[in-house]
Amino acid sequence: MAETKLIHGFHAVTAKLRHAADDIKEIHVAEGRQDGRARDLVRAAEAAGVRVVITDAARLDGLAGGASHQGVVARVLAAQRYVTLDDILEPLTVPALLLVLDGVQDPHNLGACLRVADAAGAHAVVAPKDRACGLNATAVKVASGAADTVPYVTVTNLARSLRELQERNVWVVGAAGEASKDIYAVEQKGPLAWVLGAEGAGLRRLTRDTCDELARIPMAGTVESLNVSVAAGICLFEACRQRACK
User: Fold this and answer.
1) Which of 9, 73, 95, 211 is buried most, with the most CB atoms less than 10 Å from its CB?
2) Secondary-structure class of domain 85-244 per CATH
3) Mean pLDDT value of segment 153-164
4) Are 56 and 184 in contact (CB under 8 A)?
């Protein structure tokens, strides 16, 4: 029998139903929920041939491991669709825009980064297999559907993968607070990968040394750094702005 995992929250489950209904084994909906949102989800599941189980609150809480599930939990196939950098880059007819995360440990931040990447039209989020939180149920929920629309590419060796991107003419820029150049001075109209470091630690030395250049987000206030998803949004949307101004 194929291994399964649980995801929770209306956005995460609805997105999975919309983009990969065949991966869903069953959806548990809270007993007594008769609001429009729940009815729409049940109708969509039934139309897709997905089993719906009306479940009491205590069991839902147990399935979700105590997380805020909004009254819906789905059992889905655990295996992620394996995607490589080649799979992302080869079919592109426009300059690549990638978000690379160097060891982000907080699944809330990963989910938020996926959501930002989706909004900015990034072609993928890239992260190492180790020293990173991975795409767990919390990350999927926070992503609000973006986990099913933005490819999540995991790589064994991040520095080597960055060099492979460079060989394919992707300009690799690391976000670093101490950089002399700010992000608005970086040319971002061509194939580009923004690399952001983990919470607190920033970019690892080897990652930093592999980047083509470093750039900082100008900070006018007293705080020294931003949440990684906020920083990702600023960097990616500057790329969007430059590309729209061609």
Assistant:
1) 73
2) alpha beta
3) 94
4) no
